[in-house]
């Protein structure tokens, strides 16, 4: 397979670059400069910056005409008012550099493109990854064809608040999912792209140790010893249920410890499991004890909160004896901005997420108070469909149960399901053409159907990355691991960029594009779910 000719795309990019910096009247006073500086982006390999002294459109009408011409050249048809920001990663300039009002909030405008995003947009062009829009059904119609509240309105309103009245409350995103996000690189990009426009409020939920002996530590303690990880993705259910992290760490020795480098957080929270026979957990800062747990041995999931002294450098969580269980540690700033909790687990699917204990799910999500529940699922479901270890009714039922449980625990949150990426059939022979996984599109259709019926948005990652054959292009470019299941390097970054672009475009365009009506009743979906024996662990 050869890399496609992108000369046409680069010519478009050059034209779009000329439009960078065009500003619609009324935007200047509504957008805080520390959030969305109205300057051109740094040079990238996708969109060169305008040359010094380059002419700008002589009038607002000319600017609108030029933008319409660019969009018409991309779509092949006339563009009608109002202007809509494209979610396509291959056309970054109008989406990320030209502020334009849309929807219920006139100040909504996309931040300037980041340098990394520019490179990833160029990569998307080379890999023929067009991007896609978020489908957000209307939950509360307004007069005529309007929509007072869509599936993503709570999240978009929270983003508005970060601009209008920043305050000291972060906007939390809780991202559940499988191994696609468990390495944290995809959600790193989503987190950082949103933080570039709305501020960064810190790390959020962390683990006391890694989920495996390998991997980075961006979302764990800096140094750990004496812990055994157990996850809800294991084939045989572990002896204890899980909280929202989907992971717990069991102390296998006295004085098991996780040490966290502090970043000025004013307080923290320890999530732990009160199991019979386990010793206490001790929280200390720079050698000074802040808190000790007092186990009752009743098996409940508990919370211990503590204040952190100013200037503290290191936080230690230490088990006094074997058997203590840590579910997670929360560290974040008292600041406006984005916090994205990575709650992905290798081998997870909606069925296995039923292993979350109900009280822990309710209490921990209530503490986090997320404004967006984000679910990256479908890859393991499509594989298990291929293996005949599950069926489509089970996929639908268990996803509906998960969405209902999470939304009941966080009723003020928006909800978005991200479908699986392109996938190829197991047993491919080396040197032979790759064959698409037979149940992939059926799994995507089932997830979309359930998401929209449950009042959640849906993002089709498979379409965004280029549909059938896109995995082969990623593989040829060196962005897939040898298993041809997991992306790596800039392949992961690009998938994260596609999701971030779609969320930002959806925020800007809310109200400019009619939201589809919620036409499917949710009453027939199951209220709860049980773990089924059809689930199988996937490496």
From TrEMBL:
Chain intervals with Low complexity compositional bias:
37-46, 54-69, 79-106
Drop me one GO molecular function for this one.
Answer: hydrolase activity, acting on ester bonds
Chain residue ranges for the region called Disordered: 35-109
Name assigned to this protein: SGNH hydrolase-type esterase domain-containing protein
- Where in this chain does the record put each SGNH hydrolase-type esterase domain? 340-491
